[in-house]
Amino acid sequence: MLVRDYRPKDIIIIFYYVPIVGYAPDSFVTIEADEPRWRHESGIYGETCRWINNNYNGTITLELVQSSPSNTFLSAVAILDQTLPGIGLSPIFIADLNGSSLAMSPEAWVEQISSRTFGKESGTVRWVIHATKLEFVSGGNWASLINPKNLLMQAKSKWNY
Hints:
Elements: E1 11-15, E2 18-19, E3 29-33, E4 38-42, E5 48-52, E6 58-65, H1 69-83, E7 90-96, E8 102-112, E9 124-132, E10 135-137, H2 148-159
Antiparallel strand pairs: 1-2, 1-7, 3-6, 4-5, 6-9, 7-8, 8-9, 8-10
C-alpha cells in the first residue's frame, strides 16, 4: 500500500492515569531528550571513541486549547506536587494508535505551570512535563512492524502499573 494515513485523533496522552484531552489544532505534543543518547570524542589523528550517555531524561511539551478540562487537571497536579512534594510524580504514556510511535516514562511531573494569555480569541496553553527514563519510538503507521499495543503491555509489565 502506497498511501498511509495519519490521524491526530488517534494520538493518546495519559498522565497520572488520566487521558489528556483538548489538543491544540496545530502541533500539540513535542517529545525531546535532554541530551544525545551517544557522545563521541575524536583524537588528533581522527580516531574516535564513542560512549552511551546514561541520561535518559527528557521533556514533553503539551499544547492544549484554552478551554480544555485537562488544563485544570494539570494545574491541580502541579499545585498538589508543590504542596506535598512527590505526589505529582506519575507515569506518562503517549502513543499513536494508528501507528507505532510511542513515548513513555515511569516518572514524570509538571515542570512548569503554564502562563495564561486572555484575548479576543481563545488561545492555547503550553505545559512542560519532565520525564525520567524516557523511552521513545519514532515510528510510522500500522504498516510498521512495531505494534504500540504490544509495547504498552510490555511497559505495564516492566513498570508494574
